[in-house]
UniProtKB/TrEMBL annotation:
Name under which the protein is recorded: Glycosyltransferase family 2 protein
Signal peptide (from-to): none
Domain Glycosyltransferase 2-like: 8-166
CDD domains assigned to the protein according to its UniProt record, in alphabetical order: DPM_DPG-synthase_like
SUPFAM superfamilies linked: Nucleotide-diphospho-sugar transferases
Alphabetical list of InterPro entries matching this protein: Glyco_trans_2-like, Glycosyltransferase_2, Nucleotide-diphossugar_trans
Length: 235
């Protein structure tokens, strides 16, 4: 990957059983990435376990900000420290760091400002629950309608950003369920988005915050947020 500075940001909340494996997998991917763990005021040993890994920087947030606030902390750090690229790798272990090279190659080849790792592009991968897949399909048609963009995996948090998108999102990253909203934000600012097929796996420990029972509420909330972001005139 040349001499570019690449930061891997790992937002983590109560991931004490996953965080060391995530860090190990990043190290095993073979690339010389810097790693920043954002401990979102976890109630367990997430911070302690992350700090056991040599060379890993850990930011302990004093309050639980949610995924949006945790990832925006990563953007602010990446921008302030001059990183060329930032990659989000979730702390639950579903993302596979060896696939970061695919994001990088897709970004270079397409000239995109953000590349999303998609579970639904000719890749045999863990597909998440049926209710979440239904929501992703709804979001797919919404994005085609509103911003004329095909996004097959809009809720994927496995993403790479270049310097331009890092700067923007360090200021305006959405707070709640931010992945779909960020797509609208980037497009409204004229930035380019692409996807590449990646393999993901099911989390080994813990449970997702989006359960089948909560999925209808999640979908309704995200759809409203997408329309709000689309109609918003100022950021």
């Amino acid at each position: 990957m040349g001499q570019e500075k690449i930061l891997i940001v790992v937002p983590a909340y109560n991931e004490q059983n996953n965080i060391q494996k995530v860090i190990w997998d990043i190290r095993e991917s073979g690339a010389d990435y810097d790693i920043l763990v954002i401990n979102d005021c976890s109630l367990d040993g997430t911070s302690v376990n992350a700090r056991k890994a040599e060379g890993v920087k850990v930011v302990d947030l004093p309050y639980n900000l949610g995924i949006g606030g945790a990832v925006q902390t990563g953007f602010k750090y990446a921008w302030a420290n001059g990183y060329d690229y930032m990659v989000q790798v979730d702390g639950d272990g579903q993302h596979m760091p060896k696939e970061v090279i695919k994001l990088y190659e897709a970004m270079v080849q397409s000239g995109s400002d953000m590349v999303i790792g998609s579970r639904f592009l000719d890749i045999k991968s863990f597909q998440t629950t049926w209710s979440r897949r239904l929501g992703i399909k709804v979001f797919y048609y919404l994005f085609r309608l509103l911003i004329k963009t095909r996004v097959t995996d809009s809720t994927s948090g496995f993403r790479m950003y270049n310097r331009k998108s890092i700067q923007l999102l360090s200021k305006y990253y959405p707070d709640d369920y931010p992945e779909p909203d960020a797509i609208i934000l980037l497009k409204k600012h004229g930035l380019r988005i692409s996807e590449v097929g990646v393999e993901m796996k099911e989390r080994e420990h813990g449970t997702s915050s989006i359960t089948p029972i909560k999925s209808p509420y999640y979908m309704a909330k995200v759809i409203l947020s997408i329309f709000f972001s689309y109609t918003r005139t100022r950021w």
